Structure prediction request, 850 residues.
Amino acid sequence: MNYLNMTKEQLQAHYDAVYAHFLSCKEQKLKLNMARGKPAASQLDLVNDILTCLVDPKECLVDGIDARNYGELAGLPAAREYWADVLGCRPEQTIVGGSSSLNLMYDLISRAYTHGLTHSERPWSKEDVVKFLCPSPGYDRHFKVTESFGAELITVPMTAEGPDMDVVEQYVKDPQVKGIWCVPKYSNPDGIIYSDKTIDRLANLKAAAPDFTIMWDNAYCVHEFCGEYVEFPDIISICKKAGNPDMVYEFASTSKITFPGAGISVVASSEANIAYMLDIMGVQIISYDKINQLRHVKYLKNKAHTLEIMKKHATVLGPKFQMVLDMLDKEIAPCGFGNWVAPKGGYFVSFNTMPGTAKRALALCKEAGVVMTGAGATFPYGKDPQDSNIRIAPSLPPVDELEKAMDVFCTCLKLAALEKLMETK
Amino acid sequence: MNYLNMTKEQLQAHYDAVYAHFLSCKEQKLKLNMARGKPAASQLDLVNDILTCLVDPKECLVDGIDARNYGELAGLPAAREYWADVLGCRPEQTIVGGSSSLNLMYDLISRAYTHGLTHSERPWSKEDVVKFLCPSPGYDRHFKVTESFGAELITVPMTAEGPDMDVVEQYVKDPQVKGIWCVPKYSNPDGIIYSDKTIDRLANLKAAAPDFTIMWDNAYCVHEFCGEYVEFPDIISICKKAGNPDMVYEFASTSKITFPGAGISVVASSEANIAYMLDIMGVQIISYDKINQLRHVKYLKNKAHTLEIMKKHATVLGPKFQMVLDMLDKEIAPCGFGNWVAPKGGYFVSFNTMPGTAKRALALCKEAGVVMTGAGATFPYGKDPQDSNIRIAPSLPPVDELEKAMDVFCTCLKLAALEKLMETK
Prediction:
């Protein structure tokens, strides 16, 4: 069954069988989506009570503040305390934003371009060239933010412990290299957790740019779907200890805890960075939605209670990831191509198929009614030099649909691999 | 009683009497605030039902969209329809944002600097000089946005019909002049409504800059506190008819309809501008808070129902403005200095005191425990060349406190004027 040992005739015979199955898939006229890390409706049902947890106007008065009126640019004190509890930092190191952490990240990069950051010699728009490190495979939306402002994206290989730090340490000697995108826990898409060693080397970077910035997107900080909660370190303290107190900005949101796009977000950093940010943010907005901040504090309470809610999400997500991994084990492993890691949290499975076949496989998927994240999306400029990495997002479809989608996906992976092998025989 | 006809001795005698009253005010150790257009707690109480209007998760499914999940970058269709109804434009011409229209305005200017607008030859950050027209007195936060990006702010005089269009028409011949800030209805702070003639001349501007932009902040579009609702024209259609379809961006929010800072906002413009904006915004955010959009649509329903809610706000705001105007009529009018216009909507009374005395008057107010918007704030760079304009924001304090605050304010205006007159005698 291992494709790599097959003769041309065996490949052709096997191809015919797999293609017949592909045609039968197509006949089902499926419309399935595994493209985005979108929670399923059944997950949203688990947290519907957030709609009813703040209905008494008397409860809008907290800490002497009327959450119904303007004010508190940095966020409701109770919401800052909530995030400090979750992230392990201090409330003064946080700004609680609106419904999107991506928006906070974009705004930080935008501010770097228009105004500069705390230690910038000038706004980045006045630099000849700005380069940004993109550990890949990574999150396409991160890469797009820096690409959108004209930064030159530099691919840094991912390892099982996080970004390849030998490579990162070399690149930051270049003063044009202004930052790096990181998803430290259950990285998007690999699902790995940065090792303590990697985190330590990141915090200790001796960057030539005085305003070198670690964009620390802790998107999946409490997002285990398998096994127990895994502690993570406070990156702000670690950077401070390393003598780089203002180098990191940490981001998180409740988008995959309560309702996606209708939650609250946070940026956490050193007090100096927070003060600098608030100064510029005060021109942009009077205050973020404190009613929704209060609603979330009342509903999520604290880190411990949030982890209980995440266990409920795990009951929905866990079986879906198991289904994906079982299908890959059963359908792909025996074929002798492809590799992947079984994650215990986050929203993705990162699958590396036979080099040169990812695009073709996903085109076939589309033909059969299954939409996946575009091939290459996990690399800068959407170009995977190996044409190999595919991000699987199993969260949205119900398990029965997911099974069908994975059947199509595995079939298309096989077809593309077989085509490639037959070409070269 | 007219100060201008008094002898030096009369001035001194009057000063002594007013100063004695000032001291008695100080003894009250007041802590009153007329600095910002903040609704009063009693106004917020009028709209508390918005907390309970969306509690059933089944109602989160609208137009085939689950408002609880990601998606719909331009906003929930029902929310776009709501704003189109209020503004008199079409839903396709709107993007419904988060809780702050200031944020949408800032982001538009920021985008102009980093990416350029629809007809920009280059991003504004690549221009040698960017100039922006600031009809004054105007809104300090508007001016600060463009100042923050390094634009050169140009003061344009306000008339009873809006910005002085003779001046505007001259300035826009300069290709470095990239835009103008406008508050067309109940302008901040003058409280005047732009005349049809002014609006027509604005729409027909022949600007040298291809990307000249009218920032049309329709902040008080339905905000009458006295008398009947006054219709306003759809600026987008008018600009289109004038052959300038992409010149205007209109902004509004529910911040003074429901809860300030916890409502929904909108930017409306031509379809071409909306498409261009969505393209860049798609990098910034996945979608704004659709749950809050839906909550607002359910609560506000449509323009007609919104106007009914505004009548309730008027019952709170009307008497406050009446108190301010009565006090000015009684205390200041007889003294022969100062002028003001009685507005019928908006959030401010614009008071022009004796030139050269505004700062001194407000310093005295502060000494007596009454905080006002800083003198000069209504002009670019916070500098009123006449040192005369003062913005009165009567909305926040209850009527009894407002009466005390106005007593202090009138007393301080008199003291500063008397000091000035005594100096020059």
User: Anything to note?
Assistant: Chain A has a mean pLDDT of 97.
